[in-house]
Write a structure and sequence with these properties.
Layout (H helix, E strand, L loop, with lengths): L13 E4 L5 H12 L3 E6 L6 H9 L4 E5 L5 H11 L4 E4 L14 H29 L2 E6 L12 H21 L4 E8 L8 H4 L2 H9 L12 H8 L10 E4 L10
Parallel strand pairs: 1-2, 1-4, 2-3, 4-5, 5-6, 6-7
Helix pairs in contact: 1-8, 3-4, 4-5
InterPro entries: KR_dom, NAD(P)-bd_dom_sf, Sc_DH/Rdtase_CS, SDR, SDR_fam
Family: Belongs to the short-chain dehydrogenases/reductases (SDR) family.
Protein name: Gluconate 5-dehydrogenase
Length: 254
């Protein structure tokens, strides 16, 4: 009997998924829980995550919640210390400023870069020492296809997501010899709650048609990629950006 499926199990591991109250973060967290990990759901308020924690526990999975604002580094540090050892980090949380370049001030740009990119570095700094001590870790930074295929009206978001992909490569180069892999996960057009209005618009229809799959992805379709990168099966995958976009970035015109 093949033991290959066991390579995707995360039994005994603790995984923190930031921004996991809904959307892609929630689906990745649920997937890791189903793979056997104890999952730490994250949002600004741990109290608001109680229904999601209860849902996972009722299904027989191990789950807890931690709350902090990514812009509050002291609260971040306190929450990570209280959480204890973390084996897998999926950094998914991020904000988006949907305005033209001319309307975004340098201060606005710097604020979003801080929340979406610099905060990821700060969180990794807190978690990595424990991974080094244990000789095992998985860092997964959620980027976006806009890191390579820019769109108008999102200059700071494009820059931040590009920075996350580059940060993953830099961390892979430095931490690979310590038993830690670092990769980026790059989603395409997903039918999340935050994209509901866009999906119903003419632009959303264009994006659907632009995809070779001719549809928006169901949020559940991100979970398999996250499980793979977090699992022992991906032990030699390091510094890679795994694109989950139905073929958008592989095509010029579809």
């Amino acid at each position: 009997m093949s033991i290959f499926p066991d390579q995707f199990k995360l039994t005994g591991r603790t995984a923190l998924v930031t921004g996991s109250g809904r959307g892609l973060g929630w689906q990745m967290a649920r997937g890791l829980a189903e793979a056997g990990a104890r999952v730490l759901l994250h949002g600004r308020s741990a109290e608001r995550l109680k229904p999601q924690v209860a849902q996972l526990r009722d299904a027989g999975f191990a789950a807890d919640a931690i709350g902090f604002d990514m812009a509050d580094r002291q609260a971040m540090q306190a929450a990570v210390i209280e959480a204890g050892p973390i084996d897998v980090l999926i950094h998914n949380v991020g904000e988006r400023d949907r305005r033209p370049f001319a309307d975004i001030s340098p201060e606005d740009f710097a604020r979003l870069i801080d929340v979406d990119l610099a905060a990821a570095h700060a969180l990794v700094k807190l978690i990595v020492p424990g991974m080094i001590e244990r000789g095992w870790g998985r860092l997964i930074l959620v980027s976006s296809i806009v890191a390579d295929l820019a769109v108008p009206g999102a200059i700071s978001y494009v820059a931040a997501k590009g920075g996350l992909s580059a940060l993953a490569r830099g961390l892979a180069a430095e931490l690979g010899a310590k038993g830690i892999t670092t990769n980026a996960l790059s989603p395409g057009f997903f039918a999340t709650e935050t994209n509901a209005q866009l999906m119903a618009s003419p632009q959303g229809e264009k994006q659907r048609d632009r995809c070779p799959a001719k549809r928006w992805a169901d949020p559940t379709e991100i979970a398999g990629a996250a499980i793979f990168l977090a699992s022992p099966a991906a032990s030699y995958v390091n510094g890679h950006t795994l694109v989950v976009d139905g073929g958008v970035s592989a095509t010029y015109l579809a």
